[in-house]
Amino acid sequence: MPYAMVPPGYRAVFLGAAVRIEDLGTFTPLEEGVAEGALVLMKLDFAEFPSSEALAQLNKAFLDKGIPPWPGYEFVVYADAASPSVYLTWQKGFAWMPVIIGILVVTILPALLGGAIWLLLPQAVKDLITGIINLGMMMLMMWLMTSMMKPLTAPAKEKRKRLEEAKPAKVGEVGT
To answer: Distance between CA 2 and CA 143 in Å, rounded?
Structure first.
């Protein structure tokens, strides 16, 4: 736990654990009973280290929804360098827990489900999907290359002057 984040005079209190995202809804009444202005800290443990892009997207989603970070801090999402854990910190204005759970469901749950489904697929299906993706990328590259080469291989358009046909001279006419 990042005790360096907890301001002097405060202490972190363990309220409970949730195995699924849906179980986080049980903590909503606990947050509602906390006085306004209280600093709230939530720890999320993952099996793998989350990517920095996913954490940045999650932090941006929280800030866009208006969730206030702790005073003196600019982020709501903090990653633990030693373990695959993420800390969410916010200052209670009203119960932000339902909003946070909604954002977590929208941003993290699809990636977890996609990863779980990928692990459950047989190797033959994984190879088929990978082959289809590679084929699509190859077709896209071929289309791009041919569209870039068309102007180079097209014949040059020259304006040719049309010459008027010479009329044959009649016998007896003198040309000047």
So the answer is: 52
